[in-house]
Amino acid sequence: MESFKNFAAAHPLLVEAKDRLWEAILESAPNSLIIVSGPTGVGKTTLLARISQLLAAEMRDELETNPGRLPVVRVEATPPESRSFSWRGHFKRLLLEMSEPLVDYKRRLNPAGQVLPVMPPFPNDRGVTADYHYAVEQALRYRRPRAVLIDEAQHLFSPASGRRLEDQLNVVKSLANRSHTVHVLCGTYELLRIRNLSGQLSRRSIDIHFPRYDATKASDRRNFIKVLQTFAEQLPLAELPELAKLWEYFYERSIGCVGILKDWLVKGVSTALRGPSPSLTLKHLERHALSISQCDRVIEEATRGESQFREDAGARSRLLLRLGLAAHPGAAESKNPSDPDRPRQQQPGQRCPRRDPIGGEVAIAHTTA
């Protein structure tokens, strides 16, 4: 059972997201932000785990000669307990992840460049947060990881809006810039709030969409069924069930998210193994399936997020218009009077010959009061 819990199926959408993220980490500037977004339960945590393994394997030879370096720093952002996100707690978790010593005693240098005396753990105030921020920056410079991976990154910005949202983002940008370390923000579609928050962020950030399987596409249906068959072959049961026959029910209650499907199967199999006959039945699955209302909520959030990655037909036309590369539909009626191509205006009382029929008599209209 433990082996099945740790099993991750290399399905097509996961492989595609892994390849795109791997390329972005290796090819982007060292102060870039990479935003990976997708629906809840799609497998984002599995994606970060796989990237961590690849980075460690890629740097194995260097790590043997330089044990002080880290291939990657991976941390999960926790939801705020109050109206503001605790950067102090987030920085502390980063330091612990990097195995920094004396985390509770981190201090900056005073203006004279002298180290302040060691003091007891600090109270929860803004000064301590700044100390931790500086400590994380220096640790990243020394450890030189290829990337900082932040899972559930939507919690960094969940309580913020407006100017406050931009301030939260500036903390991440500043840390990435000053430490010269790629930061990967991985989370739900709530992360799209910061996607185009400013022109600077749009230039420095890379968007990666990790979608669910869409049953309206034939290829996605086939791949989803293959994922089911792969999971069935890994089940710790004497008699392997034919899950592919129930693929529509599995898709309905997982909305095409492999992470939701995997968690569901783990719960169902655990219940089956505790029973008198260790075989997975529909009753075991129904016991742990998401309810209709839960599925409605998840698919609502998923479709709303997916729509933000689709550009409507007029998006490019509007861009070209703003760049001055396309004529406005009403440009012919609003030409500049100084335009040489514009017909010359007639003087008052002078007839326009184009209004008179050729070869006919000119009719003069009399107006009576």
Could you write a compact summary of the structure shown?
This protein has 369 residues and is of the alpha/beta class.
Overview of this protein structure:
This protein has 369 residues and is of the alpha/beta class. It has two domains: 208 residues, P-loop containing nucleotide triphosphate hydrolases (Rossmann fold); 90 residues. Helix content is 45%, strand content 7%. It contains 14 helices and five strands. It has a five-stranded parallel sheet, with helices on both faces. α7 links the parallel β3 and β4. α2 crosses α3 and α11 packs across α12. The C terminus is likely disordered.
What structural class results from the helix and strand content? alpha/beta
What is the 3D shape? globular
> What is the CATH domain class of the largest domain?
Alpha Beta
In DSSP terms, counting alpha (H) and pi (I) runs of 4 or more, how many helices?
14
The tally of strands reads 5
Biggest sheet statistics: 5 strands, parallel
Number of domains: 2
- As laid out across the biggest beta sheet, the strand order is 2-3-4-1-5
pLDDT averaged over residues: 83
CATH superfamily of the largest domain: P-loop containing nucleotide triphosphate hydrolases
Q: Assign the CATH topology of the largest domain.
A: Rossmann fold
What share of residues are in beta strands? 5-15%
The N- to C-terminal Cα distance equals 101 Å
Helix and strand sequence: HHEHHEHHEHEHEHHHHHH
Helix content: 40-55%
What CATH architecture of the largest domain would you give? 3-Layer(aba) Sandwich
The Rg value, from CA coordinates, equals 30 Å
In terms of per-residue confidence, which ranges show pLDDT below 50 for 5 or more consecutive residues? 116-125, 331-335, 362-369
